[in-house]
Structures are given as C-alpha cells and as structure tokens.
TrEMBL record:
Protein's UniProt name: Saposin A-type domain-containing protein
Organism: Diploscapter pachys
GO MF entry, a single one: oxidoreductase activity, acting on a sulfur group of donors, disulfide as acceptor
Signal peptide: 1-20
Biased composition (Low complexity): 42-63
Chain segments carrying region Disordered: 23-77
Record bears the keyword Glycoprotein: yes
Domain of life where this protein originates: Eukaryota
Keyword Calcium: no
PANTHER family in the cross-refs: GAMMA-INTERFERON INDUCIBLE LYSOSOMAL THIOL REDUCTASE GILT, PRION-LIKE-(Q_N-RICH)-DOMAIN-BEARING PROTEIN
The family this protein is said to belong to: Belongs to the GILT family.
Length: 320
C-alpha cells in the first residue's frame, strides 16, 4: 500500500469518528430573542412514559402549531443600554433638594424690601436674591448666641441687666446661648494694671463678676449678677458681695479666692481680648450685644438693646 493510500485511509477514518460523535447544537433563533433546549429524559423511559410528564407552559410568542410540549423556552437577557441624560433627570427630579431652584440674581431688579425682612418668606428671599442664604440659615443647627459686653457701674448696663435681662433669659431659656463679658471700655495700662471708666471700684466689680461667670454657668450666675448690679451703686464691692452671697453660697469661698488672686486678673485679660477682637465694628459704647459673635453698628446695637425680646422671638423661629 502506497503512502498516499494510507494517508487517505487515515483521513477517512477520522471523518467517520467525528461524524459518529457529532450532535447538532440546540435550536437558536436570535431574531426571536430566546432559545429552545431539548429536555433530557432517562434513556430507559418509553415514549408513553414521557407523555405522562407535565407539559411546559407555552411561550407567549410561540405559535400553537409549532408548540412542542417537550421543548422549554429560556428568555435571553436584553442588550445593556447606557442610561441617557433624560433618564438621569427623571431620577434626579424626584429628590426633594431638586425641587428648590436657586437663583444667583434677584428675581426683581429692584429689591425694595428692608434687609430685616429678606428671610421672612421665600418670595422676599427670591426677590432680593438671598434664597440660598435664607434656606441655609433655617436649616442650620447652630444655636443662636447673644453676647452682652458691659461695665459693672455703667448706668445703662445696670438698668438693662436689672430690669430686662432676667425676663428675656427666662422667656427664651433653652432657645439661645447667653454670654456675659464684664469689660466694656476698660483699658490695660503699660504696667499691666486695669483702668476703668468709673474708677477702681468698677475694675474690682468686673473682676468679681468674671470669677462668678468662670465658676458658675450663666443660668446660676445670672441671679447673683442681677442682685449685685442692683446693690453696687450704694454699696462697696465687698458689701454687695456679702449682700448677694445667698446666690453663690456653695461656691462663695472659691469665688473669693479667684477674686483676690491671680485668676481674677487673668479672666479680665480674657474679657479684654474678647472685647477688642470683635468684628467688624469695634465696641464704642455699652451695653453692646453681639449676635453669633457679629458686632453690629452702633445704631443697630441700640435698636437690638431696646427690642431684644421681639428680635429673639423672630430669630429663634428661624433657628428652630
């Protein structure tokens, strides 16, 4: 047998083996987006036993004439499609924050509303172009802070502290933070001593109140300060301290040590630093009210002192 004959015989044998083991692939119709797979049954089952098997549910797109109960349909996954811009917008517009449309420019070219009323309503805020700022103020969880800078012997300070401050603090207690800074227009001299507008007595009274505020909270210190401001005009500092000592009975010794020692002077320097670092307007007169550490102008400060209860009623509604 020649080489060519042997090669042809080997090729013929390989082809026969491949044809014997070949099975056609499952039927696939990509235009209909699903495939049919022939279920496998045990070989020992007869056709009659196979007919007793439960019928599969006919695929809705398969014609009844072509339906084979022994073929099972599996739907293929649809092709992936990238979401379009309209899809993103449809999802985004459902969020609450997407409902608010801020404008960088005033809706009205002329904002004829006083600044105190800009945040009264969304319409006024939009008209003056401060809608974002007003919404940020309402959503802020920062507590409202009111700082009173005063002098112990200032007649206007004494009147404000004795007659107005207790009622204001009790009415709005828990709705704002009150900070008291007894310094006013006092000065630190070159030798480190203090000089006050109403003499050394006022410097001593300021130092004593700084010690009280350092040891006690404002809520506990305020009754003593009110009593002290009412008595300091006709008593000395020590006599006024004794007269109002019932309000600081448990901390009397600690406060007296602070007042007589170096701690009292250190607290006064801190009060001076707090007063001198106010922005944007310097403290020119007392009593002076800082709102969240902001120093208003003198005219606005005088208005704030006179109308503090009404302003707090308005401001606290924005913060709560």
């Amino acid at each position: 047998m020649s080489f060519t004959t042997r090669t042809l015989a080997v090729v013929t044998l390989v082809v026969q083996i491949v044809q014997a083991n070949y099975r056609p692939p499952p039927y696939s119709d990509h235009s209909r987006q699903y495939q049919y797979h022939q279920p496998s049954y045990p070989r020992h089952q007869t056709p009659a036993q196979r007919q007793q098997q439960p019928h599969r549910t006919q695929h809705p797109s398969t014609p009844a004439s072509q339906y084979d109960p022994y073929r099972h349909a599996y739907t293929t996954q649809p092709p992936y499609r990238h979401p379009t811009a309209s899809t993103y917008y449809a999802q985004y517009k459902n969020y609450p924050h997407a409902q608010t449309q801020y404008v960088s420019q005033p809706a009205n070219p002329i904002c004829d509303i006083p600044p105190d009323l800009w945040c009264d309503s969304p319409q006024s805020a939009q008209q003056c172009g401060v809608q974002r700022q007003c919404d940020s103020l309402r959503q802020s969880r920062r507590p409202l802070k009111v700082t009173l800078i005063y002098e112990a012997l200032c007649p206007f300070c004494q009147k404000f502290i004795s007659n107005q401050l207790p009622a204001i603090f009790n009415k709005f207690q828990g709705q704002f933070q009150l900070e008291l800074v007894p310094w006013g227009n006092a000065r630190i001299m070159r030798d480190g001593s203090f000089s006050c507008n109403h003499g050394q007595k006022e410097c001593d009274a300021n130092r004593l109140q700084s010690c009280v505020l350092d040891i006690l909270s404002v809520k506990l210190a305020l009754p003593f300060i009110v009593c002290f401001e009412r008595d300091i005009g006709r008593f000395s500092v020590d006599q006024a301290l004794q007269s109002c000592s019932a309000f600081i009975r448990n901390q009397y010794r600690q406060i007296k040590e602070c007042y007589d020692g170096y701690r009292g002077q250190e607290l006064q320097r801190l009060a001076a630093q707090k007063t001198l670092n106010t922005k944007p307007n310097p403290i020119m007169e007392v009593p002076y009210l800082l709102i969240n550490d902001y120093t208003p102008s003198i005219d606005n400060n005088n208005l704030n002192v006179l109308m503090l209860p009404q302003l707090l009623a308005k401001w606290t509604k924005m913060y709560h």
